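Help!! Second protein's tokens look totally different from the first
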Amino acid sequence: MNGNLTIGSILLFMVSCVLSNNYIFSRYLGCCPFLGVSSKVETAVGMGAAVTFVMGLASLFTFLVYKYLLMPLNLTYLNTISFILVIASLVQFVEMFLKKFSPVLYKALGIYLPLITTNCAVLGVTILNITSGYATDAVYASNGLLWSVLNGVFSALGFLLAITLMAGVRERLESSKIPEYLKGFPISLITAGLMSVAFLGFVGLV
């Protein structure tokens, strides 16, 4: 990919992040909340929206921390711990915001809201932003920050799509006749596997 920002390149990048390189089905990142918070569509959408917000802001702030703090001081080996601290701060902000303005969603997300801090999808996107060269490669010299944020937001939208689809299927399964030994976690794993195979059809599209 070149570093030029055009409508076409952004759309292709979005399709790649959401479908062909979906964090759940292609990179297997964020599987814990994907299985744990996907029992109801409403809760899944709320979780996906919270993750989208955190991943977008995390991509922004971790890029700035890496390029303008860690790199000049030759402390790039501290990127992981620095990114975790940034993500933890953002999650704390989201938690306080939801607790005040949307207590129902706050209660529905439960333990999984603070666990966004340790969601490997959130940490993964910040590290992949660096390894992809957005902060270091000359080709991204003028717009690396924008690419980094776009990668975070589009990858989060892929997470939102995956967890919402999973929740929709699981709600349908609740009213379906399923053998007793497949109820619960087993049928959820089977469903996730079939969805992953479906998403494999997008590989190579972009």
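Here's the second one for comparison:
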Amino acid sequence: MNAAVQLDVQDGVALMTLSRPETGNAVSQDVADGLLAAALVCESDDKVRSVLLTAQGTAFCVGGDVRAFAEAGDGMPSLVRRLTASLHMAVARLARMDKPLVTAVNGAAAGAGLGLAVLGDIALAARSAKFTAAYGALGLTPDAGATWLLPRLVGLRQAQRLLLLNERIDAVEAERIGLITQVVEDNALAAEALERASRLAKAPRRAFGRTRGLLYAAMANGLETQLELEAQSIAEAAGSGEGHEGVAAFVSRRSADFGSI
């Protein structure tokens, strides 16, 4: 981590915070490197059971650091290549880790910020939040997984609308089309997001990790292939400590304790 991305782990929740509010949390090389370092910790640290991604200030993330792009001049392609190398490794690890991800979108999410905002398994947004792709206005193409995520979340037509028409939508519209999970009042966002992340931290982490993997796999698999993966996964879960604890708790009519497993 670095000053641009803070990471704090408490009670199983890793709070990852974009911390360049003076720039709208624009994705500089420091931000991309910080995201990757934080993602690697979240992926590998067994004390982390869920991850909450949010940002300081009034914007979530306005996308790439356009000022740095301009200053790079003819070196802009090399700068962008280095930046996306770190950013995309971070996105991949956050998507593939066996821990659920909550995103708390506290303001504008544009460009790469859009991809980060909707990456969460649970994506919450403040009522004041706005979403836009923004790439077309700069003569650039999408990054941060936008062309992979958006069609899967909202369908091809809505993805085309967002990426080609460069429309800015509010949080209510984002919820309506399935881009986010829920709109939350601005003053309740932080508490609501932490409550969701804390709830997930108490859940069966390995079973939820398998569930995340199954959901991503389903996007490319046929029915029979997916059924076989589900059969393998539930059998493995049934033989795990989480499975034994969950079944025993159900039979005993008590709350399951997955935190120590």
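Reply: Different proteins will give different token patterns, so don't panic. The longest helix spans residues 76-96.
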